[in-house]
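Field reference: sequence -> structure
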Amino acid sequence: MYLPVVGLEIHIQVKTNSKMFCRCSADYFAKEPNLNVCPVCMGLPGALPVPNKAAFEKAVKLALALNCKINQETKFDRKNYFYPDLPKGYQISQYDQPIGEEGYLEIEYKGDSRRVRIIRVHLEEDTGKSLHAENDETLLDYNKSGVPLLEVVTYPDFESTEEVILFAKRLRQIVRYLNVSDAEMQKGQMRYELNISVKPDTMPLGQLPDYKAEVKNIGSISVLEKVLNFEVARQIELHNKGEKIPSQTRGLKGMTGETVFQRSKETADDYRYFPEPDIPPLTISNELINSIKESMPELPHQRKQRYVDLGLEFEQADIFVEDTERGDWYDGLLKIIDSENNADEEYIFEENAFNGSVASSRFPSKKYLAKEAAKWIVGDISGLLEKKGMTISNLPLSSIELIRLLGHIQAKQLSGSNVKKILEMKFDVSDDVSKIIADNNMLQKNDIGVVESFVRQVIEENPRVVLDIEKNPNAIKFLVGQVMRLSKGTVNPKVAEAEIRKSLVL
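Structure field:
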């Protein structure tokens, strides 16, 4: 039996206005070829590169989020190789003194926390783009050349396809939260390289195979998964045939995940790294590190834990973490709750407690409102938005109105079905929920005298059902339904059932 051994290299285009070492625009997508170029990014004689400060600071931010040690003395190096899309004949990158190293990122796998170790986080510049024409000509677009790139390199800590996919998604999420990159994979803003080998399960723990296959330029998570499955199967087959597997670089064959041989695998020596002579070593001060730490936003795992602590289900928390627009709307609602609710107390609503304002003598508990709001946002509200082709930023329901509805539910003044009707009506009318409730007589009548009158009428009109209750206890549900029909849904069904049982001495 063979086990996969997988490491990742992830290239992330940094979200900046200009390129890494010049003032050319970094906005290259769908632009006319070769307009955003200058002597610096083309490597013309006499042109001197100057590092992009914004890209540098975002690199530090990502390294901190990945729990890396920040190298306060860092430098740029020349990585020498000769490809047509590399106009200088070398790439300005980092080698032995990256911005961050020896970090980690934790993922949840099969109910356990798995720590994936990070070797390094470093800055470099992107290459140009090769365009292969139908007449076998290759055209070159250098608009992308020099765009700032962050490279994250992991140790070979992955032992399954599922772990790789979880890590890839988690990292993309962090990058977006930090505003380091939009990480739009269809635009090439985040690309993966896989280093894959397989080893017999008898090989000692910690020992690695003496080869690896590198697959470059994977531009989607779905293809990443296909490549992993294909490569693992290909290598196991070669092992079973008794063939020695060489280290090599392989490319994609379409979008099926199939890979093809490209060249023998390079080593660091092949790139002939040496310090970039035109950029002096850089010092990252403690002041800068502390300033970046203070500006760090709440990270995805921190946000999820905050939601879980409020009592949300894991699935609900994941939705709010992944869909930041919905999450931000929900957080706005939580702020309103915090401002109105200084004590964690349950409020038993009186019939007109919500008279157009949120304020009341006592307020529902934060946990109750947080849990119920999440349920409605993820459920019915999201369903209505999808049906209307809208996002939550266009929701015609304010946070205060949703809180008001939840309060009425808790006070047993509104049924769930009526709340659904109100939500649907809010998409068609501009009236406040209080007016909709009043105009449609939706508040449930929990006044015992009113409920008793409905119960008496139902019992008188349904003598056969009353007689049948002793033999068929479920028959009482029919009577409850009749009370709801007479009251047009304004009686709480539990109150109705209690009064029926009281009247019939059940």
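Note: The chain has three domains: 2-295, 300-439, 448-504.
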